[in-house]
Write a structure and sequence with these properties.
The chain is an all-alpha fold. It has helices at about 5-30, 60, 65-110, 135-170, 175-215, 220-260; strands at about 120, 130.
Length: about 280
């Protein structure tokens, strides 16, 4: 006997996705409350340059915190532009792969029954008739594209959250490792909950839309919906490999800049780009 019925599952699954997205938005809002000036210096970070006691810390240690904040904003803007340019360049190649592999999926699955449009006996119950092979091939291809697009969207949103939080984490680190950890943790939570919840929501919607056609043919429905996972994992694989190469290139560039501009040895903890 099921703990919750079908109606309960139909409510709990999208509710969990919506709660996850709302929680991610709340975490993002908390990170956004850390003030960072615009990269052109128009917006001052007056509140960010104050110490815990509320007075200007630059009067004590001789550090111009407005200049530090402006520099952080400038670096954040440059990182965001570079990461966005990389992602869109990578996505152009991924679009070719997505289209090509979608055609391969359709051809292989459709040719299993010679692109038949007639209902076939179900494998789990020969007495019942299931949807034709051509329909399974088409819906598997659509599910693959949905999973791929969801993964691509997740990668872009994750990058935006990361670049949004990096300067804020650095500025909060002036007030202690605890404050910096909170900002970094909140940004990671926003990223994780947003990606997982959006993937769950898209999967839930896809299953229900596919179910309109498949009806009680659960075998055909879930054979076709497996393309969703294949599409998501394929894009994640390319994103991980390509992102690793890009990250390593940025790491080497940061080490070189530290050596040239400040004569800092490689992997020296004084180089902020090492983190």
């Amino acid at each position: 006997m099921a703990v919750i019925g079908t109606a309960g599952a139909e409510v709990l699954i999208p509710l969990a996705a919506v709660i996850g997205i709302a929680f991610a938005v709340f975490q993002w809002y908390a990170v956004a409350k850390v003030p960072v000036p615009s990269h052109d210096g128009e917006d001052g970070g007056g509140a960010a340059q104050k110490g815990r006691s509320g007075h200007d810390e630059s009067a004590e240690d001789g550090v111009d915190y407005r200049q530090v904040e402006a520099r952080c904003a400038e670096i954040q803007h440059a990182i965001s532009i570079g990461a966005t340019s990389f992602l869109f360049t990578e996505y152009r190649y991924l679009a070719v792969f997505m289209a090509g592999f979608a055609v391969v999926i359709f051809m292989f699955l459709g040719s299993a029954q010679r692109f038949s449009t007639r209902p076939e006996p179900c494998t789990y119950d020969p007495a019942r008739m299931c949807r034709p092979a051509l329909a399974n091939a088409a819906f598997s291809m659509i599910a693959f594209l949905l999973g791929a697009l969801t993964s691509v969207m997740s990668g872009y949103l994750g990058m935006r959250v990361a670049t949004f939080a990096n300067a804020r984490t650095a500025l909060e680190a002036r007030r202690g490792v605890g404050r910096a950890f909170v900002v970094a943790f909140r940004s990671g939570a926003a990223m994780g909950f947003l990606l997982a919840s959006s993937a769950l929501f898209v999967l839930y919607v896809a299953i229900n839309l596919f179910g309109v056609y498949y009806g009680d043919d659960w075998g055909g429905l879930y054979e076709s919906i497996t393309g969703y996972g294949l599409g998501g994992s394929s894009m994640a694989l390319f994103g991980r490999v390509g992102g690793g190469i890009y990250t390593k290139a940025a790491d080497v560039g940061a080490d070189l800049v530290g050596k040239v501009e400040r004569n800092i040895p490689e992997d020296d903890p004084r180089n902020p780009a090492r983190r």
